[in-house]
Amino acid sequence: MKALVLLAAGLVATTAPAFAQTQLASRNPQVDYPGFERLAGETRDIRKGRLIDFAAFRTRAAQGALILDARSKDAFARGHLAGAVNLPFTDFTAESLAEVIGPDRNRPILIYCNNNFSNHRSPVPLKSPPVALNIQTFINLVGYGYRNVWELNDLLDFNDPAVGWVKG
Predict the structure, then answer these.
(1) How do residues 113-165 score in pLDDT, each as one tens digit?
(2) Quick check: 87 and 105 in contact, CB under 8 A?
(3) Less CB within 10 Å around the terminal CB: N or C of the chain?
(4) Could you tell me whether strands 149-152 and 109-112 are parallel, antiparallel, or unpaired per DSSP bridges?
């Protein structure tokens, strides 16, 4: 009897996560993890070709590309790259993106995040590399139809005058 109980407990333990995932996926049509996985996969190759160094980043900005800072309003207020506009990642919607970026979905957009800075203190504390805001921001912008996204690929010191850091 004890072996049967242990076997049943093992079966529940191994199938419960899959069952829970299926139940959760089907209960809320406004959350689509498989869709996110597809989007992340499709975005992977696009992103590989859109990682640029700081010199190219500044050149594109000078040519009219929008520098989008998706950090919190508070972090942005404490410091950001010169010329950047702020739309916190948590506020991304089709409407808010169109308001900040404008109606042209082909407009070049430049992105950066905390992990582009070596300072590792406020307002750019180091984030866990697999969840660096660059990644989510890039995926979300592409998911909302913005395909001309360019990501800063360098590690900078915001105290370097060449960086153009605006202190809050």
Answers:
(1) 999 999 999 999 999 999 999 999 999 999 999 999 999 999 999 999 999 99
(2) no
(3) N
(4) parallel
Closest by CA to 101, choosing from 117, 119, 110, is: 110
* Phi, psi dihedrals of residue 66, rounded to the nearest 5°: -85, 130
Q: Is the peptide bond before 88 cis (omega within 30 degrees of 0)?
A: no
Token digits for 5?
């109980």
68's CB contacts (< 8 A; 6+ apart) are: 84, 85, 87, 100, 101, 109, 110, 111, 137, 141
Q: Let me know the angle formed at the C-alpha of 42 by 80 and 100, rounded to the nearest 5 degrees.
A: 35
List the beta strands (DSSP E) in 1-148: 51-52, 66-69, 79-81, 85-86, 109-112
